Amino acid sequence: MYNFKPLLCYKVNGEKRSSSNVDTADYSLELSVNESKIKCVLHPKKEIELSSFSLETRKSMSDDEFFFVNGFQSWSTSPEVKKTDAVKGIISIANITKFTRHLAAMSGDYLFEKYDNVPGHFHSFTYTYFRKGNDIELFGSMSERNGYTVFEMDNGTGKFFVKKDVDGVITGEDYVLLDVSVICKPYDDAFDEYFASMNLRKSKIKHMSGYTSWYNYFQKIDENIILRDLEGIDRVKEDVSIFQIDDGYETYVGDWLDVDKNKFPAGMKFIADKIHEKGYNAGIWVAPFSCQRVSKVAKTHPEWLIKDSSGKPMWGCFAWGGAYTLDMYNPEAAEYIRNCFDVILNEWGYDMVKLDFLYSQAIYPRNGKSRGQIMCEAMDFLRECVGEDKLILGCGVPLGPAFGVVDACRISCDVDLVYAGKFYDKLGVNREVPSAQNSMNNSIFRRHLNQRVFCNDPDVFFLRKTNLSFTDEQKYILGKVNNLFGDVLFVSDNAGDYGEKEIDMVRQFFKENDSKVISAGYTDKDIITVRYLEGDKETAFSFNMKKGVIIK
Q: Which of 277, 305, 357, 391 could form a disulfide with 396 if both were Cys (CB 3.0 to 4.6 A apart)?
């Protein structure tokens, strides 16, 4: 059992204070630690504004031990690391100005977590584990509703921290700072117990496969392209359950009901009806909190936007030439979002919404609430808007707040059309940039989420011959990894262009995989080995992650 030392940093009437005592004139801490639970409740004696809270203990990692780094959100690279490894933050050049730092940092945790690039110093969000062989010591937060839970290991000092991101919280009432389960069991048994104990809402689906338009056309879609690709996917109709329209149907991001009539003259209900005629569920992409700076909603309702400390609209992402974020706590903005969902789901008739860039709602704490509390309330709000009968595919979202809310969730960054990566991949701007390798990394190391909290979406695989820089071997590796570890399986290809080889492969990768993974991870530099059971037969699949070459 661990001996933890607390540290609470806070303000009273604007005066900064900090203490490691469990009882002061300002508060008392009710701290309980045993072999299976770490819990700490704050009992304020007056109204206080929280800044940070942590528990510190001694811990060391052995040379053969791994620490799981669960990244901040869907896209964040999430590896297993050894005590000699380092986890990098944003590229140093991004710190030139406050604005460039915000642009590089806003999609991750770089604005409030420390990255010092020192080997052996790393942190993990919501849960983590220390692994030796197949046995793990799992630390898992039971809720992020009072703030993000962060587990930090510093091998240089031999210290392990359990922290709560409570920055911005103002409270005069009892406040649960930490509620963490500790489970020491074999890998699958530990995750079975952890997620079962959370009593999460169950996903309405177990598997879906089909088409999404993004990676072949990006925003350059139109009615003709979509209907052509809808006909093309008929070649594997028996293995298709979902056909999704991605970004590009709207005039501007944020103006969701203002459909581009030049691209979609018959409207989006017409497209949904055509998808349903084929027997598929109709999906559509929405970034519900985002609005381009040039959008009608941003121009006509600046009072709906989240503002920075100077009162100016704050950038929530740099896509589409820059986008602001609608403040869900503004009643009119919330009603606007509700109405968009009502039209998309009930008038147009879509069955699933892919909700993207969700992290933008909670970049900074506000309204006396922490980032984690805001994000959890944002996810509750979205489920309320969508309703229980429709599906949500989450993306660009911190995972803890998505537990029990979404039916499926991206667990990786976007893949890239170039296997080796484009220049921005190699710059290492942050841990969220598109990368085929990082996508597969997350599919492997976040595999424990699949079917326990939602269906894992590892992003698309490719089989087409054009508009792509993948070898046939690299296409196979990506498809194989997605199929082994995910249950949301998409292509962005026009299957009408496939040859018989590609038809056979897409059928193989679309099918639900009932193999049982025994182990998966790096067995040598750049070499991933997956061991799994197909029936009673144990099989191994090894490949060079960096090069995209299968190891025979």
A: 357
